Amino acid sequence: MKYLLMIYLDPAAGPALGTPEQEAEHAHWMSYSQELAASGHLLGGDALQGTETATTVRVRGGDTLTTDGPFAETKEVLGGYYLIDVDGLDEALAWAARMPNIGYGSVEVRPVREFAMEPPS
Predict the structure, then answer these.
(1) 91, 42, 8, 66: CA torsion to nearest 10
(2) Using CA atoms, how far apart are residues 51 and 71, in angstroms rounded to an integer?
(3) pLDDT bucket at 90, cuts 50 / 70 / 90
(4) Relative to the CA of 55, which of 3, 48, 67, 68 has its CA 20 to 30 Å away?
(5) How many distinct structural domains can be found in the chain?
(6) Based on C-alpha coordinates, what's the Rg of the chain?
């Protein structure tokens, strides 16, 4: 089964940029990513740029509206994701529980809904 592991964090709660703690966490993220890839379960994943680079798009009454930033005001923001293919929810949860930010952030684990794609006629 495919699962999306969405990584949420409070940017103010993690280690400050340029500190030895941040460098150690970065190294932890790299080793976690390499271990996940080596397991054969990793299908994809990326870190996201900060929320200050986000734009939210809505269409209401035929008008396209854009807003700078994420769609909700919250302390925790989506920082990145991994797309994995594992045997089931328990294995997906185990990978989520090992993420480097789990002590100060959270990981939403959600199954991917797969649709049969029919070729256009």
Answers:
(1) -130
(2) 10
(3) very high
(4) 3
(5) 1
(6) 17
